[in-house]
Amino acid sequence: MGMEMEFQELQKKIVECRRCPRLVRWREEVAREKVRRFKDQEYWGRPVPAFGVPDARLVIVGLAPAAHGGNRTGRIFTGDRSGDWLYKALFQFGFANQPGSVGRGDGLRLTACLVTAALRCAPPKNKPLPEELDNCRGYLRQELRLIQSKRVVVALGQVAFRSFLKALRENGEPVRGIKPEFRHGGEWVLPGGLILISSFHPSQQNTQTGKLTPPMFHAIFRRAHEILEQVKM
Q1: What distance in Å separates the CA atoms of residue 52 and residue 59, rounded to the nearest whole number?
Q2: Are 150 and 7 in contact (CB under 8 A)?
Q3: Which of 86-90, 102-106, 130-134, 215-219 bottoms out in mean pLDDT, i.e. has the lowest?
Q4: Which of 125, 26, 127, 134 is nearest to 71 (CA)?
């Protein structure tokens, strides 16, 4: 089986996952009860697969689908304010064909980029339990193994940052000689030349308080673009 086919089979397995009873109950309850502004829409209500291309050079790791974002639309970072921030930045630096992210049929396409998450189901209050992250990390670990073209990883938020590093170690790629500590704009060269960049998550908690501003967030993807341009040379 080729890499791309194996990647697609993995995404199908993710969508069917029912490993975490609490998350299954919550995602299905949200999809059933909905909220008033989306009452006429059919919710996805399942684990959300990665979005982008399996031969990505840039991999973005987020926390989890939003209850009325990805859990509704079925696409990661789609249909909520965090997604508005992310895809606008990706569009500005050439990783997306449009700045908007409304739903799976909106024509959005990514170039040399894949967006994934530490957790594939929307957690209550956006707070996954440690065992739920452990259950889900195997999917991230397999994605990272399959995406052999990756050169830069952007981790959005501390949970994604830690999950990525754990997945890397579990793939037999220990982070030797360095101890990455999460901060906005952190950058590390990992074994094998992979570059990790850390960013605050574009959650409303961060963006509405000014902890994360558009210039701060766009600087992350400007840097990712610069690195990938240098790698080409």
Answers
A1: 9
A2: no
A3: 102-106
A4: 26
**Which helix (H) or strand (E) segment is 8 a member of?**
helix 3-15
Q: Tell whether the torsion through CA atoms of 180, 212, 94 and 159 is positive or negative.
A: positive
What is the Cα gyration radius of the chain?
A: 17
Q: SS3 for 174?
A: coil
- Number of separate domains in the chain: 1
DSSP-derived letter for residue 202 is -
What domain range is 51 assigned to? 3-173+181-232
Phi, psi of 14 (to 5 degrees): -60, -45
3-state secondary structure of 199: strand
Contacts of 94 (CB under 8 A, 6+ apart): 111, 225
What residue ranges in 47-189 does DSSP mark as E strands? 51-52, 58-62, 113-117, 152-156, 187-189
Cβ–Cβ < 8 Å for 143, 7: yes
Residue pointed to by tokens 């605050």: 200
pLDDT at 219 over 80: yes
Task: Look at residue 233 and tell me whether its pLDDT is greater than 60.
Answer: no
CATH code, domain with 127: 3.40.470.10
Nearest-5° angle of CA 186, CA 123, CA 88? 50
Strand, helix or coil at 3?
A: helix
pTM above 0.90, yes or no: yes
Residue 207 gets the label, from left (phi > 0), alpha (psi -120 to 50) or beta, of alpha
